[in-house]
Design goal:
Distance between the termini: 79 Å
Strand content: 5-15%
CATH superfamily: Carbonic anhydrase
Organism: Candidatus Geothrix odensensis
Strand order of the largest sheet: 2-1-3-4-5
CATH architecture: 3-Layer(aba) Sandwich
Number of domains: 1
Radius of gyration: 20 Å
Protein name: Carbonic anhydrase
Keywords: Metal-binding, Signal, Zinc
CATH class: Alpha Beta
CATH topology: Beta-carbonic Anhydrase, Chain A
Number of strands: 5
InterPro entries: Carbonic_anhydrase (IPR001765), Carbonic_anhydrase_sf (IPR036874)
Number of helices: 9
Cofactor: Zn(2+)
Length: about 260
């Protein structure tokens, strides 16, 4: 007698709602390896069947993944049996639904804290989550050529880079560390310490302000990203990761006003 195996898979999603209430995405994790359809040369493969198809859905998926991480119920990053199939699928290209620009800090494992396996996040890491020109170009590539729907610029609590800039208080840091100060130019002036505020509280405000400022600076420096955001094809979202709780606090997507049509 032949025995027919019965496979039952149950997955629960919880959408994390912080400062930004993103619409709930009904994406169901399937096998990590998805077939990729061919696409025109120079572009990534077609997104996986369960990939978010809008900026709102992309942000909701990141929130849901973070909620799983906080609850200790990761799904997408706890499936080693799919590793070989996933590698084989990704040989043909990538279609990450989100760009994450975050700090190089070893305590900020973006793929784990968003519970997303390889091929779903396009990550740019620099100390102080302050992308330079190449970082901005990388984000443009992901949004324009790979179809990413959201760019999250994520700071974090207890950031050593922000702390170093704060403590230097305008004095040049040694070696090439001056680049950290250049990347955060104007941060201290825009967010001065209140006389009744202790250093830890001020650092926390600086970390949030830096994430917001870096997100705005990226749009200011990239006409390509501004155009995509104005067309509502892309969201640029500041965020802050809290080391102790594991929660990611999303702020509102930056508003972009479409450029008026040119008159000839």
């Amino acid at each position: 007698m032949r025995l027919l195996p019965l496979i039952l898979a149950t997955t629960t999603f919880t959408l994390l709602a912080e400062d930004h209430a993103a619409p709930a995405a009904k994406a169901k994790p399937k096998a990590a390896a998805q077939a990729h359809a061919p696409t025109p040369a120079g572009h990534g493969p077609a997104p996986a069947a369960d990939a978010p198809d809008s900026p709102a859905a992309a942000l909701a998926e990141l929130g849901a993944g973070n909620a799983r991480f906080v609850a200790g119920k990761r799904v997408r990053t706890l499936n080693p049996g799919q590793d070989a199939a996933l590698r084989a699928a990704l040989v043909h290209g990538q279609a990450p639904f989100a760009v994450v620009i975050t700090c190089s800090d070893s305590r900020v494992p973006d793929a784990l804290l968003f519970d997303q396996e390889a091929g779903r996040l396009f990550t740019i890491r620099e100390a102080g989550n302050a992308p330079d020109l190449q970082g901005i170009a990388s984000a443009e590539y992901a949004a324009e050529h790979l179809g990413s729907k959201v760019i999250v610029i994520m700071g974090h609590s207890s950031c050593g880079a922000v702390k170093a800039v704060r403590e230097a208080n305008g004095k040049a840091l040694p070696g090439n560390l001056w680049a950290l100060q250049a990347g955060m130019a104007g941060l201290l002036e825009s967010t001065p310490q209140d006389p009744n505020e202790d250093a830890k509280a001020h650092l926390g405000r600086l970390e949030e302000a830096n994430a917001r400022r870096q997100a705005q600076a990226m749009l200011d420096r990239s006409a390509l990203l501004r155009d995509l955001a104005a067309a509502e094809k892309l969201w640029v979202v500041p965020a802050l990761y809290h080391l102790a709780s594991g929660k990611v606090q999303f702020f509102k997507p930056l508003a972009v006003v479409p450029a008026p049509p040119a008159h000839h």
